[in-house]
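Narrative of activities, Objective 1.

The group set out to show that a structural description can be obtained from nothing but a protein's sequence at a throughput compatible with the screening campaign. Below is one input-output pair from the validation batch, recorded exactly as produced.
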Amino acid sequence: MKSVERVDARAWAGALWRRLAEPGQWSRRRVAGECVLAVVLALLAAGMEALGGHGGLRMALVAAAVATASLLRRALPEAMLIVAGALGGGTDGGDLLLTVVAWSAGRRIDGVLRATVSLCASFAVYEALDLWPWSEAAPGGAVFTAVVFLVLAVVPGLASRYWAQRRTLLRTLQERNLQLLRERQMIAGQARMRERQRIAQDMHDSLGHQLALITVHTGALEVDQELTGRQREAVGVLREASVAAMHELRAVVGILSDGTPEDAKPAAKGVAGIRSLVESAAAAGTPVVLEESGEPRPLAPTADHAGYRVAQEGLTNAYKHAPGAPITVSLRYEPDSLVVEVGNGPVPQAGAGHRAAVSGGQGLTGLGERARLVGGMLYAGKTADGGFRLAGVFPYGAGNGHGPGDAHGSGNARTTSDGAVDDFWRQNGEGPLGEGEPVIDQLDPREELKSIMSAKKRSNGCLIIGGTALLMLVGLVAAGLFGVGTVVREAEKGAIDPQVYAGVKVGEPEAQVRHTLPSGSSFLMSGTRSKLPAEPAGSTCQLFLSTADEDDPAADTVYRFCFKDGKLADKREFHVKS
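Output recorded for this entry:
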């Protein structure tokens, strides 16, 4: 058992030493400031003890205790608050220390319960030592001591705690503001990345389509028998330039496309623009026809643009991979969805000038993603006659979602919503992309939540302590008013005019004398009785203060009337040092 107690004592001493020697607890500037404050408080305490008429030994002991408590108040706020209460109540020079320690403890004691218990313990010690001996203590003195403790300790402690909580709240708000600024920067960066993706996709869609047309037509001109050699050479240079432009476009698109999700904002062109695509291709000499069936119905903007992109990509692929083959573009308005289909016949026999087409490898992938995001599906595959068909199905009124995913046949590329593992809209609700997506920050959200919750708990603790202190203050004010009234009444009961004292004669009947004097006995005279000579044996005495102004402010005039056997046996006047 002794070994266990010895280990516990060592652990407690080690914890105390680590708390006293905490890094940053005693910097050079703080050590100097703490020493100056301790010396000032010790000198003031010694001066107050000297004014109280105490000896040099007590002055030295009180000054040493005050200096020690001042130096330890940061490391041991609860214990030093109780010690300060003892010094404030038991000595003349500890009141200023109590204020300093209460200010320091208000911001350093963690938890409402610990702060309340420490404050109540300090108050109990302060009240007990200030009213000692209790036999001479009066109710008015207890109220006055409570009010003094409230002013010296409770008010500074609450003010310090409020100031610390306000500073913590401001620091938390500043950190939160920085967090919001970082999130805003990250959102702006994500918006820029999505814009880069959109630009890359538009470059692939628009410029790729036009360059494919240029390549097809220059290839046809290059094998024209009516051109001269010089013209054919110029056409070849033009074709090489268009092919190089396709390669550069592919490189730029690869740089701009960094894997960020494609922005699904509505585009300017929709299904209505497919007719102009077909007319442009036909004007360039491409054998292409447009077939429409069903009653046209409106689509959501994203689905409308996706349908246009299917037709554009289908024509571009036909230009590149099957030049000269007949192309059919179909728009079928079904009861529940729109079907956009582009089909071309088999590839004709390649001429002498036919070269491999340049492909970025992203067209069908991007179209599949567009179709998935608008709730549709995409089909791409060869036909029975050796041609190729690209078809997209887009439900009416669907702007985002996912469509059916049934498969037909084998060996065909089909993109549906089954593999939508990165569907941001589905994860974040039905809002547009960018309004509900998660933001990744370097700070741990759990730590931020813990900090906010701890600050909230501390703020609630401050409110609880503040409310308790307010109730205490109201109670003490009421008690103080009651005490003041009691003191006034007791003073009226315990004071007489000197002329009344002179008019009373020894030997007069007790009833006549008591009728002349105030009725009752005042507790204000309880401490004075021990300072007077002994009362006559067998008599009952009553004490009164003089209402006349005293020549010596440090002395009080006291009148004593002693009664025995129904008569006034003795009356005397005393001058008592207060």
